[in-house]
Amino acid sequence: MVGPRRQPSRRGSMADVPHDMLQEIKRLEDMFTVDTTKLKAITDHCVSELARGLSKEGGTIPMNPTWCMGFPTGHETGTFLALDMGGTNLRVCEIRLPEEVGEFDIIQSKYRMPEELKTGTADELWGYIADCLQQFIEYHHEGEKLDQLPLGFTFSYPATQDYIDHGVLQRWTKGFDIEGVEGKDVVPPFQAAVAERGVPIKLTALINDTTGTLIASAYTDPEMKIGCIFGTGCNAAYMEHCGEIPKLEHMKLDPDQLIAINCEWGAFDNEHKVLPRTPYDVIVDKDSPRPGQQAFEKMIAGLYLGELHRLVLVDLHENPNVKIFEGQDISALKKPYSLDASFLSDIENDPYENLQETHDRFESLLKIKCTKPELELIRRLAELIGTRSARLSACGVAAICKKKGYKTAHVGADGSVFNKYPHFKARGAQALKEILDWTVGRDGKPLGRGNDPVEIMPAEDGSGVGAALIAALTLKRVQEGNLAGIRDPEAMLRGTKAEKRGSKEVQPNK
């Protein structure tokens, strides 16, 4: 059996660590390390749960059909708007898809999402978003007479979609808690706010950021099969054949037709059958706003990594058999979520043999002066939590590959953990190798970067380019008469022109 590959330790780093602390480090290693056998068991269970989510009975993983049907060809053309409603910013983009295959031009503006909006009223939220769209159009198209521009709206909150321009919010996330929106279609009030201001926009597609990531990445890379987000939360999307989706049987769709599935896989193993939860994972779940939900996400996503680290340190300090932070006031450390994923990232990135940067961060942020042995434990704990996150994340990717029979694939990934957390990519690649039993790379070449049969790589801009592409694909589909998941095809086409005259201030991008 191939065991997990450890990060190289610094020479002699544990030489002066006391016996009691060494024992604790060993205990934590045993607790947080996920070996190959366990990775394979998690992956196999995930495969069955993905299928259960597509069944008529459904399962814990929602497996939401998105009504984005098929991959882009690279020949899509036209001008489209994209709107991305994030937790911190609102982003508006105008994307022009020219005749050149796989190319695009983009202009964009960011608007801050005021904190008070997150707990305000629905009218205030949609009104603010419509105001931002109006400002964008007036700034970039002053004095122009425009046809209604098709809009792809990236709404990255769990939503059920009966149509591509429809989305019933299942629950708010990312700090939003606006009454009267959950359980309702978010499109009509958004459209009403836009119409009230006379903004020449027609919402063509409501999408999730994972779906956008998949489509944007596939636009420039035909080997792209899966889109993932590894950030504050975690999720994935992939293309499924309609014939493999029993819960859509009643629609009599072409069984070979591809449709993007927004997995919402953060809910994987809410029943706690296979994931190796520690006592600290149990506390994170119990103290969260929604206990019993998002079991997978709470073990791997950026929102929770720092909190896991903090809980372990507080527990060790309160253990009379372990001497850590002796005689010091750790009240700042006792504050929930006082450490975030970037804090762990900085610990792992500390370049100094004596971990001076970590020492200084603990002193400045938490008013704790750490000894050298304490710093070694802190560093090793960060490595363990970060490594577990990457290895468990790989189980979801491997599960989709096994379900679809992909022997080779590119996976487009976005999110702060994927892009910024040290070694996340390498640790995930190692886990995929163990789960899928690779011995050689593509075309018989040695394994390594660029040759791994399944490679997770940075994604294209899903919430911008992906949203625009999905709007383009939807309009093309309506024009061709493929109306599955289209609420009102005539209204979608009426007054909407993908081509627009006089585009200006366009910055090339690729």
Task: Explain the overall architecture.
There is one protein chain. The protein is built from 15 helices and 14 strands. It is an alpha/beta fold and 510 residues long. It has a domain of 201 residues: 2-Layer Sandwich (Nucleotidyltransferase, domain 5). Strand 3 and strand 4 form a beta hairpin. The N terminus and C terminus are likely disordered. It is an enzyme of class 2 (transferase). Its EC number is 2.7.1.-.
Could you list some keywords that capture this structure?
6-stranded mixed beta sheet; single chain; Hexokinase_C; Nucleotidyltransferase, domain 5; alpha/beta; 14 strands; 510 residues; disordered N terminus; 15 helices; globular
Give a short overview.
It contains 15 helices and 14 strands. The protein has helices spanning 19-32, 36-54, 122-140, 187-196, 209-220, 279-286, 297-300, 302-317, 341-349, 356-366, 372-404, 416-420, 424-436, 462-480, 489-493; strands spanning 64-65, 78-85, 89-97, 104-112, 149-155, 159-160, 168-169, 201-207, 224-230, 234-241, 258-262, 409-414, 454-458, 507-509.
The residue ranges in which pLDDT falls below 50 over 5 or more consecutive positions are 1-9, 498-510
Strand content: 15-25%
Count the E strands: 14
| CATH class value of the domain at 69-220 and 461-509 | Alpha Beta
Q: From the 3D structure, determine the CATH topology of the domain at 69-220 and 461-509.
A: Nucleotidyltransferase, domain 5
Question: What class do helices, strands and sheet pairing give?
Answer: alpha/beta
Shape: globular
CATH arch. level architecture of the domain at 69-220 and 461-509: 2-Layer Sandwich
Order of helices and strands: HHEEEEHEEEHEHEEEHHHHHHEHHEHHE
Q: Determine the CATH superfamily of the domain at 69-220 and 461-509.
A: ATPase, nucleotide binding domain
Q: Look at the structure and give the mean pLDDT.
A: 90
